[in-house]
Amino acid sequence: MDADGAAGADLPGAVQVIRVEEDRIDSVVAIQFKDAVRALIDPRVSRVILDLERVAFIDSSGLGAIIAAMKGLDPGQQLELAALSPVVDKVFRMTRMDTIFTIHEAVPSARAAFHP
Amino acid sequence: MEPTQDRTPPLILDVWIRAEPAEVREGLSRSRRALARIGFDPERGEEAELMLAEALNNVVEHAYDGREDGRIHLQIQADAGLALFRICDFGCEMPGGHAPSGRIASAPERAALAEGGYGWHLIRRLADTVCYRRCGSSNCLELRLRGASRQDAED
């Protein structure tokens, strides 16, 4: 997992992108994944974008790990998702998590999205 | 409806899996390759993998309750039009003797969101039919999934 630099993290609306390097977020890695995301989140930013471009597969334990990471955020912070593969996107839609998370097609458009 | 209930496609995979996450991952990988070899629709194959992952994870986490000496017997019968997954184990019976309905609560506010309980919801959404039986000291779950969707088949 890799997080981008925190320059300007104090500014209102600051964005952090966390790129997930795992190709599967399943029950083998779910707990470590949740802990790693929590450790990487910069407490100063208001938006955290999880870049899932490399993730080809997620199961319900991986989904639970992402939900747990979101629940660990500070009240003013948002966890958003970007670059979901079709089957990963399906997991979020089938469980109605697409109503909880903002899902972006790609990281650049996610960065540019305006959130008051 | 197509007469899918009575068809029994050829056996393409018959393996025993130790009930722990890394072995489940390996079992899913073998299933994926077996389905690809017979020309099962790739998109439906991904759905099959997700459905099977949830079923196997449930056996590991609930039927065997994390006991790693458990064994799971996985058999797949499939052709391009239909896949039948039979998952048997010697763990605890499903609660009430039935496969869970998989209903999920409508999304509450973020802090109250459940971190689990989505597995059976996904299985119910993905499988065309679900059949669970307790036979003596074993559980047998059968999941059926059609191959390419009707619309794809007509193209």
List keywords for this structure.
heterodimer; A: about 120 residues; Transcription Regulator spoIIAA; two-stranded parallel ribbon; 7 strands; about 35% helix; B: about 160 residues; alpha+beta; Heat Shock Protein 90; five-stranded antiparallel β-sheet
Explain briefly what this protein structure is:
Chain A is α/β, with parallel strands linked by helices. Chain A has helices at 30-40, 60-71, 86-94, 107-112, and strands at residues 2-3, 15-19, 24-25, 47-51, 57-58, 78-82, 103-104.
Please outline the major beta sheet of chain B. 5 strands, antiparallel
What is the residue-averaged pLDDT of chain B?
91
Number of strands of chain B: 5
Shape of chain B: globular
Architecture of chain A, CATH level 2?
Answer: 2-Layer Sandwich
Q: Give the CATH level 1 class of chain A.
A: Alpha Beta
How far apart the termini of chain B lie comes to 18 Å
CATH superfamily of chain B: Histidine kinase-like ATPase, C-terminal domain
Number of strands of chain A: 7
The fraction of residues in strands of chain A falls at 15-25%
Helical proportion of chain A, percent range: 25-40%
Largest sheet of chain A: 5 strands, mixed
Number of domains of chain A: 1
The fraction of residues in strands of chain B falls at 25-35%
Shape of chain A: globular
Instruction: Estimate the mean pLDDT confidence of chain A.
Output: 92
Order of helices and strands of chain B: EHHEEHEEH
Tell me the span between the first and last alpha carbons of chain A.
Answer: 28 Å
What does the model show?
The complex is a heterodimer of chains A (116) and B (155). In chain A, the strands form two sheets. Chain A has a five-stranded mixed β-sheet. The model of chain A has no long low-confidence stretch (mean pLDDT 92). Helices cover 33% and strands 20% of the residues of chain A. In chain A, helix 3 links the parallel strand 6 and strand 7. Chain A contains four helices and seven strands. By secondary structure, chain A is of the alpha/beta class. In chain A, helix 1 packs parallel to helix 2 (60-71). By secondary structure, chain B is of the alpha+beta class. Chain B has four helices and five strands. Chain B has a five-stranded antiparallel β-sheet, with helices on one face. The longest helix of chain B has 22 residues, at 42-63. Chain B starts with 10 loop residues before the first strand and ends with a helix. The model of chain B has no long low-confidence stretch (mean pLDDT 91). Classes of the chains: A alpha/beta (116), B alpha+beta (155). Chains A and B meet through helix 2 and helix 3 of A and helix 1, helix 2 and helix 3 of B.
